[in-house]
Design a protein that fits this description.
With 305 residues, the protein is α/β, with parallel strands linked by helices. It contains 11 helices and 13 strands. The strands form 4 sheets. Strands 3-2-1-4-5-6-11 form a 7-stranded parallel sheet, sandwiched between helices. A two-stranded parallel ribbon has the order 7-10. Strands 8-13 form a two-stranded parallel sheet. Helix 3 runs parallel beside helix 4. The protein is globular, with a radius of gyration of 20 Å. The termini are far apart.
């Protein structure tokens, strides 16, 4: 195990959904953390998590190679969390290449790259294809990099469970697509712990898939959320193209395309267990933030069997 106490770790996208958990874990281990993103002011809420001088904030855009080179300068380790559903080629492919090139050129020996379980050059979703191309770019420049590929990530501020819960709360008839697709959601805190543990454990050149303790079909998951927030609803199967075209649709067409393929660990994948992490069950924590979708908030106890 390598100690992170006093070491400088640059977290690209550190103010985002996953980033804030990664930053918290790194700071708790005594590391100095440099948070790099396009608008660093949006991440200053993280400052109180560290001691005096333990956090730094720098402006960097993964699409701009020069800004990335400046951001990672002097780092002991670099963690790339940048992701997007709107500018995927630039963020997932070009951005990943810029980061890996900067790490290689500056002789930084620790790079953690967050990809996705759906990364596949043959994916029906542009997201999966771009994530696969990003992995290839990282491996080409930095064979020693550690690539982590989580399934759908859930947590208090996620776009996944909150989007589904909001749909179920707001609609009496809830559209469902690819109801038989299997997913293995993983808790954001476990993903953050995996990132920091991989760094401490001196892993090199490995690709690890990360998933939670339970596999759901999308149908079962939506029914579970409806029950958890006490909403009795009718679910209606609709073509993905029609759902994406609905006014105010909360999900993009490419996200729906991602649901064509299962997002579960392959047989033999060690995932979190390889890092000594016990995965957190969705049922154990999701109630903390799903309360807001109940009719009477935390005062409502209604569920449906």
């Amino acid at each position: 195990m390598q100690k992170l106490d006093g070491q400088l770790i640059t977290v690209i996208g550190g103010g985002g959904f996953v980033g804030r958990y990664v930053v918290e874990q790194a700071l708790a281990r005594g590391a100095r953390v440099r948070i790099a993103q396009r608008n660093p002011h949006q991440a200053t809420f993280l400052r109180p998590l560290g001691g005096l001088g333990q956090t730094q904030f720098v402006r960097a855009d993964v699409r701009d190679a020069a800004s990335i080179a400046r951001a990672v300068q002097g780092s002991f380790a670099v963690i790339n969390l940048a992701g997007s559903f709107s500018d995927m080629e630039a963020i997932h492919v070009d951005g990943a290449a810029h980061i890996a090139d900067a790490v290689r050129q500056q002789g930084i020996t620790n790079l953690i790259h967050l990809s996705a379980l759906g990364a596949n050059p043959g994916s029906g979703a542009a997201y999966g294809r771009s994530k696969a191309a990003g992995e290839a770019a990282v491996r080409s420049a930095c064979p020693h990099a550690v690539i982590l590929r989580p399934s759908i990530i859930f947590g208090r501020d996620d776009h996944f469970t909150n989007m589904l819960a909001a749909m179920i709360r707001n609609l009496l008839m809830v559209p469902m697509v690819h109801g038989q697709t299997q997913v293995q959601p993983v808790y954001v805190g476990d993903v953050a712990e995996a990132i920091i543990t991989a760094l401490e454990s001196k892993l090199t050149g490995q690709t690890l898939d990360l998933g939670g303790p339970q596999i759901y079909t999308m149908r079962d998951l939506m029914h579970w959320i409806a029950n958890a927030i006490g909403r009795r609803r009718k679910f209606v199967n609709l073509p993905s193209g029609l759902i994406a075209a609905l006014p105010g649709a909360p999900i993009q067409k490419d996200q729906l395309n991602m649901l064509q393929d299962d997002a579960v660990l392959s047989a033999g994948s060690s995932g979190l267990s390889a890092l000594g992490i016990t995965p957190t069950a969705l049922e154990a924590v999701a109630g903390e933030w799903l309360l807001q979708y109940r009719q009477s908030g935390r005062f409502s106890l209604k569920t449906f069997a």
